[in-house]
Amino acid sequence: MSTYRIQGATGEWEVVIGLEVHAQVTSNAKLFSGASTAFGAEPNTQVSLIDAAMPGMLPVPNRECIRQAVRTGMAIEAEINRWSRFDRKNYFYADLPQGYQISQLYHPLVGEGSLTIEADEKAGIPQDKVVGIERIHVEQDAGKLMHDQHPTMSYVDLNRCGVALMEIVSRPDMRSPAEAGAYLRKLRTILRYVGSCDGNMEEGSMRADVNVSVRRPGEEFGTRTETKNVNSVRFVMQAIEHEANRQVDLIENGGTVVQETRLFDPNSGTTRSMRSKEDAHDYRYFPDPDLLPLELDDAFLEECRASLPELPDAKRRRYVEELGLSDYNAAVLTAEVETFARFETLLAETAKRLGKSEKDVATQVANWSLSVAPGVMNALGDEANPAHATAGAQAAILQMQAAGEISGGQAKEIFEIVLKTGRAPAEIAETEGLKQQSDTGAIQAEIDKVLAANADKVEEYRGGKDKLFGFFVGQTMKAMQGKANPAVVNELLKAKLG
Amino acid sequence: MTELTELGVKAIRDGVAAGDFTALEVAEAHNAAVAAAGELNAFIVTTPDHALAAAEKVDSDRAAGKALGAMAGVPIGMKDLFATQGVQTTAASHILERFTPEYESTVSQNLWNAGAGMLGKLNLDQFAMGSSNETSYFGNVVSPWRHKDGGNADLAPGGSSGGSSAVVAARIAPAATGTDTGGSIRQPAAFTGICGIKPTYGRCSRWGVVAFASSLDQAGPMARSVEDCAIMLEAMAGFDPKDSTSLDLPVPEWEANLSADLRGKKVGIPREYRMEGTDPEILESWERGKEWLRDAGAEVVDISLPHTKYALPAYYIIAPAEASSNLARYDGVRYGLRELPDGAGLQDMYAATRAEGFGDEVKRRILIGTYVLSAGFYDAYYNQAQRVRTLIARDFEKAWAQCDVILAPTTPTAAFALGDKTDDPLAMYLNDVFAVPASLAGLPAMSVPAMLNGDGLPLGLQLIGKAFDEQGVLNAGLAIQQRAGFDAKPEKWW
Amino acid sequence: MSVDQTTVAKIASLARIKMSEDELARMAPELSQILDWVEQLGEVDTSQVEPMTAVIPNTLRLRDDAIDADPLTGGDKRDAVLANAPAAEHGFFGVPKVIE
């Protein structure tokens, strides 16, 4: 149970949040036309006659867009509707050439599902929480209006118009900005795992309509407002916070919340009523007569399921249970597709080189991936060329370290040179003298000198002062200028001291 | 030599192929007929150069020994609902005046690929909404027919394909394209004594055809004989991946398989089409039709289509609902008319543009469609109409257990005078009462001329077939054509 | 179900068709007459029937995810898209300034 409350003048208020996330489906071409979906093209160059709604133009759906939405539905364990249909949502706006958006109201492609957000004490999420997802439907994106290019005109660019979106509609299950943020991040992670959306919020690949209402804890839902097109996790959280407080102030001052569409202003972190959509409430939805019902067969569904990757929750569980990683490391490693992909490649490569199981090297590789390697990279800043950080190079370093040829410190130094130059780790270790001494003769000689120089301490040690062992190790290492293999030093010292 | 304008599609094609005359001679003769027929107001624009260029290509192909297409050398009229690249396409509306598509509709492209040429873009009811061609922004089309008593009241050529019916009947074009949403090919064909077939929904691509009601719109040919319709439909039809509702089936060889021998076939006579107030001469033509089909070897059986009376009201919910949405794209932003009063914002511009750009009948239907889809009414109107539509289709399904093809009148009356029904939209709508059921069920249906009535005006008979069975419809039509011996034509007064 | 002038005005506004009082007065009875007539559909018992979704049994085809595979349905044709525009500037469609 979230304990997030707004302290009003008259008491506590609970916030109720539902999110409608518009996620751009990853596809080459648009949902109903062959125009490209690439981001950032010259205005109106990625517009077909269909997207421009020329007279007599007709939509034909893109299989990949349907497939990606189905796979996304499967990833949230949702019901996949074998029979669905496209409907028209009718309204007039300059970014909507047809005068209607092809969407799915009555029979969406994906039905009821859910996702789990993880406990995060610091954020006020005491335990894992399941957030219900009501539906996912497929629809067309609209074009873009630019208002600042001309004194009396707005300019219309239809490049985005007709790009496929999944609208992922949550239940009003969230109770704090933090929960909404966690939900968005988790959803984004799932989409990126599945590969159905790149999750790039800056380019608008993911936007959220934020439904917010407030109520006295435990009472009926209040009237909600919908803040449109909020395009970052932080902004969503800000919008909720502002909107909830606005509603509380309004109610406590004797006003009532009006069900309306609002706009978020990122500069001020506030929301305001949206004038242009005021009268657009009667959308006159009806089945699109240009399109037949969409029926999915077994082969299609099987391919969708078979092509699903291991999903975040399962992967995290496996990292803990099978690889023996800590909960924290497993969570961090599985949060981003790039992170786990790099980790798994390095893990496989390292295990192979060492002739060990992945489980046996997982902790070493995880520590390297999460703290050692990023530490070196960050310290180098611009001097580092990330392209040099290949799995092969890193595995070679880890291999030398595991074999006792190099120390942890040397591993970092070698990686630093790798990042700057791309040279091979083994060659660096050799040429730069970054190898530790495992030659028992040389170490033995230094040990003898240390023990001779510290005869009194040897006496004390033999008299039962065990702690002095570390002192001898330190003195030997110092004498070897840090290049001795500590394991060998330990072993030899033990033998000598009896 | 026969006048080239008297020849039909088959005669022209075969004559060109045989070298009896050149395609260019045919095109020139028809271009001249077009130029002389201004009084009919059948064309919105004429395209003599298009017809000539197509003809020259056919003649040179023939000289080079190349294979000629199924419509080689045939100049046709193109209903101005089909987008034609580089040629103004208006749907007879002000809102699309001067709109010049950068693309060619699939159906017109198919016809050009088959060797046809274009005489011009034919007038029609605005956005194909009307049954008399009186809703065009470019003025009424006048039927070439007149009452035989010499009264010179202008008659309606039917609608919405009124330009098409007028030019084919008047021997200005051997054939023309039509579109049929609720009778717009069959009713004008019946009014003007020609043939016209609406194929099964999905046979002809809708890509590039200005949409009226998407779930009903079908293109088809209008010509002076059943054979000509078969030839032209074969050229127009075919699977089009650009239209989601296009039928992915090979185009049958309708022309080659024409046969007027109906032995073993059963012809259904739907008792519900015998409506009160139907013109006795219409009923008489229906009786003759039965006799002709019996004579061709068919057995005539009574059938029932119990939901017939609900077809028209269902149509007048579904078609306007779809139209209200289909016509939303005409907003003055990307093409066509823009009305921008001083100080107008975007939404004011829309309202002003659409007020100026649409005619009364189009507005009426958009308003009806908007109303029946609006909040709170959707179930009672639109969904109920679609349920009734299911029942109407089911009626036909049941009928096919008893018969192979259905015979009915095409219209309840012969052609009426222009202006007769313009004050009463409902009376106008009732003209399509016999045509609409087949549209709602997506079935192939054809009108063939049967006889002249007492006023000397043509009456048509309608044949409705099973889905995909255009052949059955054409064959029954051919049997009637051979027995009716209809050779009347309007006397030239224009 | 008769519609009055106010209702027609509301529908006309929803349909973005500007209408004068005269036009509304003329249109209201016409629309009422048509709507009264279509009301007869209410007589039909459709409790056991699904609304029609496809007039000819046919399933929705899906196309391959290819860019500009057919020039008729692909993009990269800005000139054609803007060719008929009442106000095209700098590659955009121009409309009266919108305040969101």
TrEMBL record, chain A:
Gene Ontology molecular-function annotations: asparaginyl-tRNA synthase (glutamine-hydrolyzing) activity; ATP binding; glutaminyl-tRNA synthase (glutamine-hydrolyzing) activity; transferase activity
Native source species: Pelagerythrobacter rhizovicinus
GO terms classed as biological process: glutaminyl-tRNAGln biosynthesis via transamidation; translation
Keywords: ATP-binding, Ligase, Nucleotide-binding, Protein biosynthesis, Transferase
Superkingdom: Bacteria
Ranges of residues in domain Asn/Gln amidotransferase: 341-497
Pfam families given in the database record: GatB_N, GatB_Yqey
InterPro entries given in the database record: Asn/Gln-tRNA_amidoTrfase_suB/E (IPR017959), Asn/Gln-tRNA_Trfase_suB/E_cat (IPR006075), Asn/Gln_amidotransferase (IPR018027), Asn/Gln_tRNA_amidoTrase-B-like (IPR003789), GatB (IPR004413), GatB_C_1 (IPR042114), GatB_Yqey_C_2 (IPR023168), Gln-tRNA_amidoTrfase_suB_CS (IPR017958)
Gene: gatB
Name of the protein this chain belongs to: Aspartyl/glutamyl-tRNA(Asn/Gln) amidotransferase subunit B
Automatic annotation (TrEMBL), chain B:
Enzyme nomenclature, EC number: 6.3.5.7
UniProt entry keywords in alphabetical sequence: ATP-binding, Ligase, Nucleotide-binding, Protein biosynthesis, Transferase
Entry GO terms, CC: glutamyl-tRNA(Gln) amidotransferase complex
Catalyzed chemical reaction(s): L-glutamyl-tRNA(Gln) + L-glutamine + ATP + H2O = L-glutaminyl-tRNA(Gln) + L-glutamate + ADP + phosphate + H(+)
UniProt key word Ligase: yes
Amidase domain segment(s): 32-474
Residues at the catalytic site: K79, S160, S184
Pfam families, per the entry: Amidase (PF01425)
GO molecular function, one term: transferase activity
Subunit and partners: Heterotrimer of A, B and C subunits.
NCBIfam families: gatA
Protein name according to UniProt: Glutamyl-tRNA(Gln) amidotransferase subunit A
Organism from which the protein derives: Pelagerythrobacter rhizovicinus
Lineage, highest ranks first: Bacteria, Pseudomonadati, Pseudomonadota, Alphaproteobacteria, Sphingomonadales
Gene that encodes it: gatA
Automatic annotation (TrEMBL), chain C:
InterPro entries noted in UniProt: Asp/Glu-ADT_sf_sub_c, GatC
Gene label: gatC
Any Pfam family the entry gives: GatC
Organism: Pelagerythrobacter rhizovicinus
EC number: 6.3.5.-
Reaction(s) this enzyme catalyzes, per UniProt: L-aspartyl-tRNA(Asn) + L-glutamine + ATP + H2O = L-asparaginyl-tRNA(Asn) + L-glutamate + ADP + phosphate + 2 H(+); L-glutamyl-tRNA(Gln) + L-glutamine + ATP + H2O = L-glutaminyl-tRNA(Gln) + L-glutamate + ADP + phosphate + H(+)
GO molecular-function terms, A-Z: asparaginyl-tRNA synthase (glutamine-hydrolyzing) activity; ATP binding; glutaminyl-tRNA synthase (glutamine-hydrolyzing) activity; transferase activity
One GO term (biological process): regulation of translational fidelity
Signal peptide range in chain numbering: none
Protein role: Allows the formation of correctly charged Asn-tRNA(Asn) or Gln-tRNA(Gln) through the transamidation of misacylated Asp-tRNA(Asn) or Glu-tRNA(Gln) in organisms which lack either or both of asparaginyl-tRNA or glutaminyl-tRNA synthetases. The reaction takes place in the presence of glutamine and ATP through an activated phospho-Asp-tRNA(Asn) or phospho-Glu-tRNA(Gln).
Top-level taxonomic group: Bacteria
Keyword Amino-acid biosynthesis: no
Descriptive protein name: Aspartyl/glutamyl-tRNA(Asn/Gln) amidotransferase subunit C
Family under the similarity heading: Belongs to the GatC family.
Top EC class, one word: ligase
